[in-house]
Design brief:
heterodimer, A: 340 residues, alpha/beta, D-Maltodextrin-Binding Protein, domain 2, 10 strands, 19% strand, B: 533 residues, MetI-like fold
């Protein structure tokens, strides 16, 4: 009995230590792809006297759903990583305390703030990439992908599981619509007839099926507008230009938001962290650490992004509320159209 | 005389851990999910896709188990009955796959039998790729569990049958198989549980229409957030696994045969004549299955960036620590592994003592129920932590959740490994000590503990590598601080850029090497008595 009492005591003491609401610490809940340098965190601590504790928990969808389950008793003060496709769900769940940062005045509205509930931090475009060596004449539009010329060339991550896959599906829904003589379902019927390959996730599509970066033979893949600069930035030996490029048609813009969690015991520190994430030093770090683009127009892009990437001029976007209302139905219809 | 029954209280830490960090969170999340919309239960259950998912999950798990046994049993025989050069190394090599992260295995398999694969056939998206990967992962379970018992079976029983005129097949069927049955069902049950709840392999190697229940739970929980559907599926999984475990426990109770066991060294011999071919084939097959995908990883590490070289190792050093901090990932993994390993020993060994002293009834049930976590949904458990562990103290983002989750996974293996050894300690020794005036505690310290130490050390090493390679549960728990190695590999693999992929492979190779070293040490201190895993 003594041993159990001891064990319980240890658990309680350790837990009590972990459960601090120290005003000098702010807890940031985020997904596993969030990245920040130690220098930036140190800078934040110097300026404000606040330490940041980062809590990670898998994919964005999992983290957000866990945050919703936690209700008004959140595990952290700030949540970062809510994207366009998940935004409405968090708003409907009342996950955030409204906060409008002065730092973002003038540029955050362009990306949406859900009535001041969340703050946009970065954006990225999900775009088709192609292999510039094996496919010198790529398709220039979504429509062309159903041509016989591009038969068996496209690989797409499963939209029911993969976030970029869902973004690509949304781009096609935005383009072809739900009604009329040729809907998005007709488009996918044609893609299927043209031998589109569906794989589970982005990594499998990009590193296995895609001919430029994988072992496979498919020269067109759903990836990001920032993928080609990553190919240059992370090559050994160094290369001048990427052997992959972006097809500018059919891109879908994903904005990533942060918000102060409702029930946070440290709201003031949480607001300061959001201000910091909007300021130029953090904004300039997001391209090379997370492959996304800053929302702050004062932030400069790294050279390699300017040379190898494009920011599509007119990406598709669908209102988050519309996505939330229709997501499940769209995915079910997609499964019926493409997999059955 | 009946063996002394150890106080049931010794099992309390293990049971407490299982209730607080498994049963309670699991029950809470399932109740929350179903409570949100009870009308959905029937709807989810009778949906055509649910039925086909359950059916697929069952039959692929059964097929994986049968295939693993088919390849593993001859190997278990060869490993336990023959001495041949390189036996220890071969045992280490076939064990490594068991602890590799699924992401890495999936990529290695795709490089072999995927599009443009080395073997020239594209099996990606077919059930064959899933089955092959399950066999690859689980061979060690069969070889070590069954081989552990086989190497101690008295060969004279078989020799007696043969001298009375029984053909080899008859000897195997009527003598060896019945004696081995407890270990075969134990190994089969574990392989079945792992394959039944397969997530990473089914997700990455399967096709969208070939999904296991666990993949469907992830699908419902991640992008769609249909919590009621996820909860119903998790409940189906728990009921299925519990039913399976009950059948298994009943079977174990009936099939246990008391027997005289010999030291492994006394039963192994050098293969002669035709036996050489037999041993080569029996060991060569699992060895090839284990080594070829590992060779693919090594090959990828060496050929990163074009020519042969150490580009990957450079890549690993060059990974921006703000993106993935490789050094801290290695540190975190080792730290969690030490904690999980210590905790596992502290809670599992007393439980093993209780189980060992009660061959039926409570001991068997305890043994069975502690296996439940390895057959349960990691995604669901992660959600369960969030809803259940907020009061009286908030443990939801406590760093200790990860090593505790690892402990829950490692416990059944440690119990399996130590119970037979504890049982093999003759009661006469203990009685002698008692007669000489030693108190029960002292008897345990001076008799049981020294005899148990080798098995406990082996069990500790196993808990250590299980923690090192654990991925599913780790990923779905809200973790403060840095990443573990397996999560870091997963993160690197999710980033574009050739050096990120190279670094992912280099880190995987490091994991292979660390695992290999620990398993080799485990081999060295293998129990002189039994030690099934």
């Amino acid at each position: 009995m003594k041993r159990i009492a001891l064990l319980l005591a240890i658990v309680l003491v350790v837990a009590a230590c972990a459960d601090d609401s120290d005003p000098a610490t702010v807890r940031l809940l985020t997904h596993d792809f969030f990245a920040v340098t130690d220098e930036l965190l140190a800078q934040f601590a110097n300026e404000t006297g606040i330490e940041v504790e980062i809590i990670r928990g898998g994919d964005a969808g999992i983290v957000i759903n866990q945050a919703i389950l936690a209700g008004g008793n959140p595990v952290a003060d700030v949540l970062f990583g809510v994207d366009t496709t998940l935004l409405s769900r968090t708003i409907a769940a009342g996950l955030f305390e409204p906060y409008r940062s002065n730092v973002g005045r003038g540029f955050v509205e362009e990306y949406g703030t859900a009535g001041g509930s969340v703050t946009p931090i970065d954006f990225g475009d999900v775009c088709l990439n192609y292999d510039t060596i094996s496919l010198p004449n790529p398709p220039t539009s979504l429509e062309e992908l159903t041509d016989e010329r591009f038969r068996g060339m496209l690989v797409v991550p499963d939209p029911t599981i993969s976030s970029p896959g869902l973004a690509f599906l949304l781009a096609t829904i935005d383009r072809f619509g739900e009604t009329g003589p040729y809907t998005w379902r007709d488009y996918w019927t044609n893609l299927r007839a043209n031998d589109v390959e569906i794989v589970a996730d982005w990594g499998t599509a990009y590193y296995s099926s895609f001919s430029a970066t994988g072992t496979g033979s498919r020269p067109i893949v759903v990836s990001y507008a920032s993928s080609p600069p990553a190919e240059v930035l992370f090559s050994d030996p160094p290369i001048e230009r990427a052997t992959t490029a972006v097809i500018e048609d059919g891109c879908f813009r994903q904005v990533e938001y942060a918000g102060v969690l409702r029930g946070s015991r440290n709201q003031d520190a949480a607001r300061q962290l959001i201000d910091f994430m909007l300021a130029v030093p953090f904004q300039e770090s997001v391209p090379s650490s997370m492959f996304v683009f800053p929302v702050n127009p004062a932030a400069m892009l790294p050279e390699v992004f300017i040379a190898n990437s494009v920011v599509p001029s007119d990406p598709a976007s669908i209102d988050p509320a519309t996505i939330e209302q229709n997501r499940e139905r769209w995915l079910t219809e997609w499964i019926d159209t493409v997999l059955r | 005389m009946t063996p002394r029954r150890s106080p049931a209280l010794l099992a309390l830490p293990a049971v407490t851990l299982g209730i607080v960090f498994f049963a309670w969170p699991m029950a809470s999340i399932i109740a929350t999910g179903i409570g949100a919309d009870p009308g959905r239960i029937a709807g989810v259950l009778i949906k055509g896709s649910t039925l086909s998912t359950v059916w697929f999950t069952l039959w692929q798990a059964a097929a994986s188990t049968v295939l693993t046994l088919l390849v593993g049993l001859p190997a278990a025989y060869a490993f336990s009955r023959f001495r041949f050069p390189g036996r220890a190394l071969a045992r280490v090599l076939v064990t490594i796959p068991f602890v590799l992260p699924t992401v890495v295995v999936a990529i290695a398999f795709l490089a072999l039998i995927g599009p443009g694969g080395v073997l020239g056939v594209d099996l990606a998206g077919t059930v064959w790729a899933i089955l092959a990967a399950h066999v690859f992962f689980n061979l060690a379970v069969v070889i070590r569990t069954v081989g552990g018992l086989w190497s101690h079976l008295d060969p004279r029983l078989e020799e007696a049958a043969a001298s009375l005129g029984a053909k080899p097949w008859t000897v195997f069927r009527t003598i060896t198989l019945p004696l081995l049955r407890p270990s075969i069902t134990a190994a089969g049950a574990i392989v079945f549980l792992f394959s039944f709840t397969s997530f990473g392999i089914a997700l990455l190697l399967g096709a969208p229409h070939l999904t296991t229940i666990e993949v469907e739970i992830y699908r419902s929980a991640a992008l769609v957030f249909d919590l009621p559907a996820a909860a119903v599926l998790a409940l189906v999984q728990v009921i299925g696994v519990t039913a399976g475990l009950i059948i298994y426990a009943r079977h174990q109770e009936r099939s246990g045969i008391g027997q005289h066991l010999l030291p492994a060294a006394a039963t192994a011999q050098r293969p002669v004549g035709r036996q050489r071919w037999l041993v080569t084939a029996a060991v060569g097959t699992p060895l090839a299955i284990s080594v070829v995908p590992i060779a693919v990883i090594i090959w990828r590490v060496l050929t990163a960036g074009g020519g042969i070289g150490l580009g990957s190792v450079r890549a690993l050093g060059a990974v921006d620590p703000s993106v993935v901090d490789v050094t801290s990932a290695i540190g975190n993994s080792l730290q969690f592994a030490v904690i999980a390993c210590t905790l596992t020993l502290l809670v599992a060994l007393p439980a093993a003592v209780v189980i060992a002293s009660r061959r039926s009834g409570m001991g068997r049930w305890l043994d069975t129920l502690l296996m439940l976590p390895i057959g349960s949904s990691a995604v669901t458990l992660g959600f369960g932590f969030v809803v259940a562990l907020d009061a009286p103290v908030d443990l939801r983002a406590w760093w200790g959740l990860v090593p505790i989750a690892h402990t829950l996974v490692a416990m059944p293996f440690v119990i399996r490994g130590t119970v037979p050894v504890i049982r093999s300690i003759g009661p006469s020794l203990r009685q002698a000590a008692s007669v000489l005036g030693a108190a029960p505690g002292r008897v345990w310290r001076t008799i049981d503990l020294p005899m148990l130490t080798p098995a406990a050390a082996g069990a500790a090493a196993l808990a250590f590598v299980i923690s090192l390679g654990e991925f599913g549960a780790t990923l779905f728990v809200a973790r403060p601080g840095g990443k573990t190695m397996t999560v870091a590999i997963f993160s690197l693999f999710r980033r574009p850029g050739p050096t990120n992929l190279s670094a992912a492979f280099a880190l995987s190779l490091l994991l292979v090497v660390v695992t290999g070293v620990v398993v080799a040490l485990l081999e060295r201190m293998r129990a002189p008595g039994l030690g099934s895993f």
